Amino acid sequence: MAFSPFKFLQEVRSETAKVTWPTRRETTITTIMVFVMVALASIFFFMSDLIIRYVVTFLLGVH
């Protein structure tokens, strides 16, 4: 079985035609949601860090 670059490119093109690409609106909404989730996760981990630091400092009696 010989490798044919021309046949490979034809198959790639036909597979690419089957892809449903997101619209600009879908991409924008998804990007905004990613930023919102990153902000919420960073707030959550910041608050968790503060609480854990307070508890450990209290338990160890370190000032």
Automatic annotation (TrEMBL):
Transmembrane regions listed in the UniProt entry: 32-56
Any one GO biological process: protein secretion
Membrane found in the keyword field: yes
Keyword set includes Transmembrane helix: yes
Chief localisation class: membrane
Pfam family, one: SecE
Membrane-topology annotation of the record: Single-pass membrane protein
Function: Essential subunit of the Sec protein translocation channel SecYEG. Clamps together the 2 halves of SecY. May contact the channel plug during translocation.
Family label: Belongs to the SecE/SEC61-gamma family.
Subunit text: Component of the Sec protein translocase complex. Heterotrimer consisting of SecY, SecE and SecG subunits. The heterotrimers can form oligomers, although 1 heterotrimer is thought to be able to translocate proteins. Interacts with the ribosome. Interacts with SecDF, and other proteins may be involved. Interacts with SecA.
Protein name: Protein translocase subunit SecE
Organism: Bradyrhizobium lablabi
Lineage: Bacteria, Pseudomonadati, Pseudomonadota, Alphaproteobacteria, Hyphomicrobiales
The encoding gene: secE
